[in-house]
Amino acid sequence: MKVFRMNDHDWVAAETREQAEQFYRHVEVDECDLTEEEFREEQEGQVPHELGSAAMTNLLFTDDDGKTKRTFQDQLDRLVEEKAEFPCIFASTEY
């Protein structure tokens, strides 16, 4: 499982970049009620990419309580261990 940075505020956990892109489009268009045009405009200039090992150990995930923090790698390991459903929104600065 990998983590992909979709834009300045959202990360998706998925097997491949293509899977992450399809899932993210579905979430934004079908669940967040963006139109296709709004989605394209929002993503313009954004190139989804897989996070490398340095980013996975340097970026911090903050739990919903706002206090508990762990590395992105630790959070991904935790989701895999818990048998979370993938792909999924991994992290966001918008929530």
Order of helices and strands: EEHHEHEEHE
Separation, N- and C-terminal Cα atoms: 23 Å
**What is the count of structural domains?**
1
Strand order, main sheet: write it out: 3-1-2-6
Total E-strand runs: 6
In helices, the fraction of residues equals 40-55%
**Uncertain spans:** none
Can you tag this structure with a few keywords?
23% strand; single chain; 41% helix; globular; four-stranded antiparallel β-sheet; two-stranded antiparallel sheet; 95 residues; alpha+beta
Write the layout of secondary structure elements.
Elements: E1 2-5, E2 10-14, H1 17-31, H2 36-43, E3 49-50, H3 53-58, E4 60-62, E5 69-71, H4 72-81, E6 88-92
Antiparallel strand pairs: 1-2, 1-3, 2-6, 4-5
Written description of the protein model:
This protein has 95 residues and is an alpha+beta fold. It has one domain. 41% of the residues lie in helices and 23% in strands. The chain contains 4 helices and 6 strands. The strands form 2 sheets. Strands 3-1-2-6 form a 4-stranded antiparallel beta sheet, covered by helices on one side. Strands 4-5 form a two-stranded antiparallel ribbon. The longest helix has 15 residues, at 17-31. It is globular and about 35 Å long. It starts with a strand and ends with a strand.
Q: Gist?
A:
Helix content is 41%, strand content 23%. With 95 residues, the protein is of the alpha+beta class.
